[in-house]
Design brief:
2 copies of one chain form a homodimer. Chain A contains 11 helices and 15 strands. Chain A has 442 residues and is an alpha+beta fold.
């Protein structure tokens, strides 16, 4: 089936009426006398809608959740947003009452600059945990960025850069489609890299299929579609369930995971408020935007050298399928074997065996394929090694991206996980350097 | 309190009436023409009691469990053992019906040599998964090792070596104590290194406090105490719950985890069959043997550079304490920070937040200390960073071994986990080399 949307250039400023900019205001307080450009990456960004927009959000289900997440979760109840201020370099997590005051002050500073209500300003942060926000720097940044807002691709890119932490590249996408006679666009940016296994929900209640999960990932999506708030929240929930909540880099869920979507209605479509074909088209485009962004996070995860799509089918239940796919995708031994290009099925069976999903060794099939290919190379059928040559399996497992297919053959539950290998570079990056605390992760 | 036992030399041959030996029979079938000593490490061992012994065991709760585990779980119902044959190099896991026939054939080969019943011969294996046992080599090994049995320290050491896989050193201990007038000894050996987070039970039912866990660890304990089988099983369960089931190297539970204890009664104590002070003395000695062996596994874990004892107190329940301590001890981000000597509390709070234990950020205390010391250096009190200097915390976190204390301050549940850092060496070792399949792990 041909997708009902096309990709267009830019990202969050592609839909009508969205303005953006990003600046450097030294949130890590590295100073400027170091002679290196290390700390000069933009670290504060602002996204603004010309008119108040309908907003939906999904947030970390961690019990230790950052001040900006608490603020967003409160504000989203009114369903209206006009601006999002985001910083990297400091997560404003584990910062107590002062942290919440600082997050609110950030919203107020933006509100003052834009002359709107602070209740319409959403805040997101990512970076080191447990360090108070450097408010003088933040204020300088907000004053500066408020003067630079425009709708250019360049400015959208500035925001995509400003939210990066250990990401090596900005992550952006935009699509365009028709709803009735109107031309609608959805644009999105995100960041990830480490602490990546989101388990977000709208309410703080952990999704049933995520028994106990674990990143900072931030995603910001803009659209000029006109859509009812409840519909937008339901659409985002479905899109996130199939994308950001289906990825893992290191199995650690963050205190700050946040996805926000702002819909300002300027495309002029007739407002989406019932289950109809227009809503389906919108959903399909939103799903695509979220999934592409989510995959970019895994591919650019800390130290990642291989991207593996793990598909579990034939599980007793959907929940079991999810447990099985996460046991495999988060096993240190499976992930190191991927790094080595080793089509090891013993470790996969090991992980399935200790998962809390029901498995029967004698029924398990394991196969490898090129990404998206239906041509499966079976290494194990019904628990028994096949005659497939080790060299043929190695050829697939040596590629930068491949698919791993696991059929438990005991039911109809299925699940997918976009996963990554575990490399020396991941360890080296995350061990940091205590003599240079700026290298220490959140 | 002074312990009621003393350490003596040797291990499994320290108690009366136990004989042992280990040989090399090339179970990995590396051949002998390679000019290297790589494959020449002993890989098959036999432990024999002069008289039939009472036996107790704890086994992996993985649903994918190796043929020898299935055989032991069956045989242990009769409660009597006289010999244990163990090999490294091949796990005999995921080997189907042939695997079980091979495990039984190993028992029969030993039985024939010793002229005892095969039902009294227990089998354990560790090594690569999914490869048929090389039975001609195994047979040659069993014939050879049966001729070499004796009670020397040297032979006990041969067994400790023969069961090693990626272990860098043999792991052995023996203690001596008085029961009534009799002098009793307990000796033990074990192996570990990778796939280490045992969750063993006597019945295959997963311990309640282990919601979904994960090594190949093998442990063999001998004693000349006279003890009732049910009492021995209960004692082993308690000892394992406080030792082997409280360690993690990489969070992966093995298909082969096995601990066996054989008690041949030759010490001549009056048989332990009720809860009395003699049983307490025995229990305390068995606990000590198991805990010391378990810690040796963590210290010699694959790539391990630091040993961290994580203590959680103040949890809502015991189960919550276990969930919290395992979330911290298995977090990739926490483990890499340990590797870097970084006393990072942000990642610890992050892991607690996504754990399935109830936590309240504003109540959490985090402290560091020297191993076993009561002098705690708090980095976090009631969710707030303390004034303790970063340098002082770094000094503790830079040591090869330290204790991490987490008080959740919301209940009386407590748990301990003996954990390790995650290093580049772990990744490098486990990625293996597909051009040399002998380097690929199980």
């Amino acid at each position: 089936m041909k997708p009902s949307f096309k990709t267009v250039s830019s990202s969050i400023t592609a839909p009508q009426g969205f303005f953006a900019a990003g600046v450097f205001c030294d949130i890590k307080r590295l100073g400027t006398g170091k002679g290196s450009n290390k700390g000069k990456k933009r670290d504060l960004a602002l996204i603004v809608s010309e008119t108040p927009a309908t907003v939906a959000g999904m947030f970390t289900t961690s019990q230790v959740c950052a001040a900006p997440v608490k603020l967003c979760a409160e504000q989203i109840k009114k369903g209206v947003a006009q601006a999002v201020v985001v910083n990297s370099g400091n997560a404003n997590a584990c910062t107590g009452a002062q942290g919440l005051r600082d997050a609110k002050a950030m919203a107020q500073l933006v509100a003052d600059q834009l002359q709107i209500s602070a209740a319409k300003v959403f805040v997101a942060s990512t970076g080191r945990i447990g360090v108070p926000m450097p408010m003088p720097n933040v204020k300088r940044g907000i004053l500066a960025v408020s003067q630079l807002l425009n709708q250019s691709e360049e400015n959208a890119q500035q925001v995509a850069e400003a939210i990066m932490t250990s990401d090596t590249k900005p992550k952006q996408i935009a699509v365009e489609f028709k709803l009735g006679g109107a031309t609608v666009r959805i644009g999105g940016i995100c960041k990830g890299a480490g602490m990546i296994q989101p388990g977000m929900s709208a309410t703080g209640a952990r999704p049933a299929a995520l028994p106990g999960l674990h990143a900072t990932m931030l995603g910001f999506i803009t659209t000029d579609a006109a859509i009812d708030q409840k519909m937008l929240q339901a659409s985002l929930r479905e899109a996130v369930a199939q994308s950001f909540n289906r990825i893992t880099v290191d199995g650690d869920m963050s205190t700050n995971d946040t996805v926000l979507v702002l819909a300002n209605g300027l495309a002029g479509n007739s407002k989406l408020k019932t289950q109809n074909s227009d809503l389906k088209t919108f959903q399909s485009a939103l799903n695509h935007v979220c999934l592409e962004l989510a995959k970019m996070i895994v591919r650019d995860g800390e130290g990642v050298s291989r991207f593996v799509t793990v598909r579990v089918t034939g599980a007793k239940t959907q929940v079991d399928a999810d447990r099985a796919v996460r046991a495999v995708g988060n096993s240190a031994l499976v992930k190191t074997s991927w790094h080595g290009g080793d089509p090891n099925w013993g470790r996969i069976l090991g992980a399935l065996g200790y998962s809390s999903a029901k498995v029967v060794e004698e029924k398990i099939d394991v196969a490898y394929s090129e990404p998206g290919s239906k041509k499966l190379l079976f290494s194990l059928k019904r628990g028994q090694p096949t005659k497939t040559s080790f060299a043929a399996l190695c050829k697939v497992a040596a590629q930068k991206e491949f698919d791993l297919h696991i059929n438990l053959n005991i039911g109809s539950g299925s699940a997918i996980l976009y996963a990554a290998d575990l490399t020396e570079d991941y360890v080296d990056f995350n061990k940091g350097d205590v003599t240079d605390p700026t290298t220490l992760g959140g």
